[in-house]
Amino acid sequence: MLKEKRSVGIILVIVLAVLTVAGFVVTSVQGKGNGEIGVVNMEAVFTQYMAPPLIEARDVMQQEFDARVDELTDDEKASIFMEYQTQLEILEMQYTADIEQAVAEVAKANGLLIIVDQLGVLYGGSDLTKNVLDALK
After folding, report:
1. Is the CA virtual torsion 49, 55, 60, 88 positive or negative?
2. Region 101-127 average pLDDT
3. For residues 5 and 101, which has the higher predicted lDDT (pLDDT)?
4. pLDDT one-digit tens code per residue, 54-111
């Protein structure tokens, strides 16, 4: 009987500790944002900001490849293709980092803790797509 009371007491102390910590976390988050959730149409951001330079880079690489294709062996073609693919991936990562930075800046400027892709939002949220695109200019 004494062991059962001790176990219940320990569980009660643990539950109270968890609730206290949760209260501190909720209190520390409150007041840091305005309670709104920002939404960004990431497809529009990618289409307007990232796609044009990637398409241009791809087209330039394709023109370079086409100009040399007749003089290249199959191994050289494969090597050049892999090189171009790597260059495009690096460029994409740079633009993606720029987008992430712009989203973070817009969130901070608007006092928001959360910004989500508009694709996953059925209702509500402040549309910040234009703000992000403006920050990327």
Report:
1. positive
2. 93
3. 101
4. 999 999 999 999 999 899 999 999 999 999 999 999 999 999 999 999 999 999 999 9
Q: Smallest Cα–Cα separation from 126: which of 33, 43, 31, 32?
A: 33
Contact 32, 112 (CB under 8 A): no
Helix (H, G, I), strand (E, B) or coil at 79: helix
* Predicted local distance difference test score (pLDDT) of residue 7: 54
Q: What is the bridge-based pairing of β-strands 115-117 and 38-40?
A: parallel
Judge contact between 26 and 114, C-beta under 8 A: no
- Across residues 30-48, what is the average pLDDT? 81
Quote the CA–CA distance of 55 and 2 in Å, as a whole number.
74
- Contact call for residues 36 and 112 (beta carbons, < 8 A): yes
Cβ atoms 114, 121 nearer than 8 A: no
Q: Tell me which residue has tokens 């003089």.
A: 71
Measured CA to CA, the distance from residue 71 to residue 76 in angstroms comes to: 9
Residue 36: what pLDDT?
A: 86
8 Å CB contact between 42 and 119: yes
Q: Rounded distance, CA 46 to CA 97, Å?
A: 12
